[in-house]
Amino acid sequence: MLFLEDLWLFLAPPYFPHKLSESLSHYMATSAACETAESDSCRDESAALNLKFVAIASILLAGVVGIAIPLIGKNRRFLRADGSLFVGAKAFAAGVILATGFVHMLSGGSAALNSPCLPEFPWSKFPFSGFFAMMASLATLLVDFVGTQYYERKQGLARPSEAQVRVGSDDSGLETGIFPAQKEGNGMIFGEEEGGGMHIVGMHAHAAHHGHSHAQDACDGHVAEPGLGHDHGHGHSHGFGDDDEDDGVRHVVVSQILELGIVSHSVIIGLSLGVSQSPCTIRPLVAALSFHQFFEGFALGGCISQAQFRNRSAAIMACFFAITTPLGIGVGIGVSSFYNPNSPGALVTEGILDSMSAGILVYMALVDLIAADFLSKRMSCNFRLQIVSYCLLFLGAGMMSSLAIWA
Prior knowledge:
By secondary structure, the protein is mainly α.
């Protein structure tokens, strides 16, 4: 026995016993902390319950007002979806949603999946939060594409391939957009008009033929201008489609995916607030979540308004959004007596949902809210609107990010 003790002392590093005891004590402390739902010096169940009811009322009111403004105001001149005021407010809301995804949801998911209450393998061996966010973004892209195709076919907006007629089949025309002309049955060349003008297929070919810039014409609000080589007075619709109808289809898909992303993380937020018994934790969350709910509701309401849903469908979507977070708080209050947010199952569920919500919100904010508005012809042709929208975008993102200090 003495021989084994001497051998152990000879082989083991001099600091090993100290590190081993530290590791064991840390594991025991972590296990004890994970077994209890909350050990906060500020714990007060009665005060926390009162604050939860205040949170339900405040968040519900903020959500209802936020989503109702664009829905009710769509018939008011200064609140219409095509008004500058609405575009600026939507830019602010897009910044709020972007910051929610990056700063709040993604960091929350990372913290949950890297919690010491979870087994080290596999959760500490791989950045699961970023992976789930990435996969959710790609899945949102797929749903966005498939949903748009579905609604186009459902509404009869998908054009048959023969409608997009390309005159001739020479590959040389692919670069320039100008193709060899063919005679039609009436002896006229395809695209030839009664006045003798030619409508050449393709925007670049059309610009080359008429000698003008369509970007400038779009800003001027018309196509034909005197002295620019036009000898026919009509407008052209490039792309063989009605852009307004296509935009309506896009807004239908965008509004539904955005609501899915908002609802998925609203449940987790409400549940986390509902199970907390600490007034010190709940008090800052009330203001932060009310602010967050208002502007998320405004962005979602704007998308619903632009999608031109029927009043009943719009009301159902608005109500579903408004009650989700308060409903999550109510569920949290009901299960707070036995629910342990530090249990492995709760942490994994919260981390995965937070990370996926982050991916959905980041995709929707960047692609369907920010890019759709900031890369539009209307924005590019209005310098003042550009400046105001960019300022509001950064302001919304900055204000929502700063709330992470308290919530």
